[in-house]
Amino acid sequence: MGRGQIDRVGIVGYGAYIPRNRIKVEEIAKVWGADAPSYKKGLMLQEKSVPGPDQDTITMAVEAARYALKRAGVGGQKVGAVYVGSESHPYAVKPSGTTVAEAIGAVPDCHCADFEFACKAGSEGMFVAMGLVKSGEIEYGLGIGADTSQGAPGDALEYSASAGAAAFLFGDKQEQIIAECHFTHSYMTDTPDFWRREYQFYPRHASRFTGEPAYFKHSLGCSQALMKKAGMKPKDFAHVVFHQPNGKFPMNVGLMQGFTREQIVTGWLSPTLGNTYSGASPIGLTAILDVAKPGEWIMMVSYGSGAGSDGFVWKVTERINAVRDLAPRTRAQLDSNRKKYLDYGTYAKFRGKIKKLAH
Amino acid sequence: MSSPRNWRGMPQRYRLEAAKCKKCGKVLFPPRLVCPECHGREFEPTHIGNTGKVETFTVIRVAPSGFTDQAPYAVAIVNVGDGVRILCQVADVEPEELAIGMPVKLEFRKVQSDGESGVISYGYKAVPVF
Ligand SMILES: [Zn+2]
Predict the structure, then answer these.
(1) Any idea which fold A180-317 has?
(2) Which pTM was predicted?
(3) A68 contact residues in B (CB cutoff 8 A)
């Protein structure tokens, strides 16, 4: 079912969802006798988001998707594909995407799949949804990155693993596109830096190995190949966003390539959001779209352990000004005056870290 | 909640689908076969609004089984316009913040999960708008 020659595809709607609960690095460090300043300075982390007990990857994905449809002005029944990328799908067997598709009214004429690739699952969903629009198979496709990830109590990951979602609706109608996709590149190798085996509750990681040969190699490799393909240099971009496992890595991976702090900070949310895993660089992109000007170029490079990166080069259009205020902005959710700070006990209860009697 | 019962309620709990009486315009949520106002039997599909105001509320401190972990939690009657009032939980709120007339929006949340291994039921909850 081809739909004829496609001119250019891009984002026609976007949305982010960040839950209201937070926990500060000090509160976690206090419980485990750890040194809070070393996390705050060393990893540039101050606090992280925490899902409420009634929130999971599916609920946040639905809210982000509804915002994306609202900004696009497109009804759910026109969405031909729904892809949810996450490493915290609520079910081991039963897709998250079917619930999301049902909630937005995309059923039953819709292609649906859940993606998994550690923190890269969200950008994968975006990549595939956009590709199907570009091929002419579907009119609109939804790519979502969402996670409510857990770090083992006391593990370094506990200071960063947080919750959030971002959704992007892709289309090919030029008058609807708010950010055109001009180039993409994917870069991956088999690198066991972080993993979780079946039936294990918490992931494991190879500590320092997650940095140099994993995060930096793939983020840099993808960025460099993408800029070469595009014939562009760091100075050509108004904004750049990388995967954000902590505050330090995305800042450093940008600076070492010649991006300035100003180009990085708009989408750099991890110091107060934490690591939203599959949601990380996608939520960063929503924060950029909230303020980007028509004509500006944006580079996004995700990273997922295992390991690989997906890169995109976007160009913002005039349409952005008409849609950005149709749904809540990302920074407004992040810096909301409705933030609620949890003590460790409440956090442990919310996250199911306390063993209870089985009913 | 059983899996079939959970499934049958999805159009309302997931998408807020309602029916509007073609004769008198009454909006029914959930839809019914006969309009209670005019006994009309023809309806057109519609949706209830996803924003509203708290008309009255209570705080559940001794919760029924399946909800004990959530106590204390708030339950409210929310007026969503078009003459429709719905009963639902209020999330993301402290009991002392609740007030009659409080503006809320409906968000997609987990309503109940059948233990550690059963099906998860999703639906709407009211969340304060500030
Ligand atoms: Zn009637």
Answers:
(1) Peroxisomal Thiolase; Chain A, domain 1 (3.40.47)
(2) 0.95
(3) none
